[in-house]
Amino acid sequence: MDIATSPLPDPSLPAWTREEFEARLRDKGQSYHIHHPFNVRMNAGGCSPDELRCWVANRFYYQICIPRKDAAIIANMPDRAQRRQWVERILDHDGYGDHEGDRAGGIEAWTHLGEAVGIPRAELWSLQRVVPGVRFACDAYVNFASRAPWQEAVCSSLTEMFAPQIHKDRLATWPTHYPWIDAEGLSYFRTRIPLATRDVDHGLRVTLQHFTTRAAQQRALDILQFKLSVLWSMLDAVEKACHEH
């Protein structure tokens, strides 16, 4: 999986203003996987317990790739202040201390979600349910973050702009449609809403400051589209796996 680049814009075209550029970045939400047929069906209560378990198990691979991706970005960051701010993302997922309570981290919270839908911890962590398409998409994202200039890797994180709504949708619909899932298992979705908002503030600030020509701004849009395609491809693979079992 690679970035599909748009044709280079006319070099005589002026850069978009910060407001115009941000609006175009946010418009990319039309391609967010909140609109994927599998996600729509899942939030409408149309998934079986086995399908939910398939999704949770495969999405877990993405969760454990996130801190690896963030560590790769930090490795390419020469600025100490930026590294100090970005490292919070790793701890958000890997957690603190003994992984108990509110600071257990996103990976631990997702493990509780797995248990709530009926996947034993050891089985989830074994990754035996992860299908090749999900591995490929996630590994492509980590590889991009390790090789790209850090500002481009930061830009790819801006799918977080669209994440709060997908979490809110799950919190609003799952208790009704899937009452067999322990409500405590949904804590990941609750905790990510404020963290995503914080992360967007930083990532958007970096992106608006760095991509300042029309060509660079188009590059940023292509990068964001790449990340959106990673997430969409993951659900394509999960949907196919569900149909095969």
Task: Write up what this structure looks like.
The protein is mostly helical. The chain has a single domain (18-40, 47-244), classed as Heme oxygenase-like (Heme Oxygenase, Chain A), CATH 1.20.910. The chain is built from eleven helices and no strands. It has helices at 18-27, 37-43, 49-75, 80-94, 106-117, 121-126, 132-147, 150-156, 163-177, 187-210, 214-244. The longest helix is centred in the last third of the chain and has 31 residues, at 214-244.
What is the helix/strand order? HHHHHHHHHHH
Q: Mean pLDDT across all residues, rounded?
A: 93
Main pleated sheet: none
Count of individual domains: 1
Q: Percent helix among the residues?
A: 55-70%
Number of strands: 0
Counting helices, strands and paired strands, the structural category is: mainly alpha
- Give the full name of the CATH homologous superfamily: Heme oxygenase-like
